[in-house]
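ESCALATION

Customer reports they have been waiting on this structure for their group meeting. Please prioritize. Original submission:
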Amino acid sequence: MTDAPTRAQRFAALIGPAARNAGYSGYGSGARLARDAGMSESSVSRMLKGQGIPDLEFWAPLCDVVGVELSDLLAEMGIPVESLRALSETKQSQVGSRSITPAELADRVGIHDPIGREMLAATIERLKRLEDQDDDQPGEEHGGKAARM
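Update from on-call: job pushed to the front of the queue and completed.
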């Protein structure tokens, strides 16, 4: 019986081939990927070996440099992208509705793993920051930075 791949191994299975396809192969490729994604070389090395997952702050830049959609990475890591989209589309449109916390959202969509809950909360915070930045950019199309994330 084989063990299911760990989260770190699933992360590496998606990012590793994409990095090679994006030209990050051969001597010095780990250093170049680290520099381009703003990560440490040791983090990149552990990530590509399936031994660790980078901090969430590096996911979007990493996806950008290797050509992976952040939504694909979130899905691979077990974060239901549909639940995030539903939240961004409703924007408290119901009379008397209140904001829910990331913990409440995790409960509602069935995320019980502590790491998954933390990843969900961090993703929501990043999306909120990007939304605030979009609001400060007059003339930019709705969903600018978040849509490119």
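Sent to customer with the following note: DSSP finds nine helices and no strands in the chain.
Escalation resolved.
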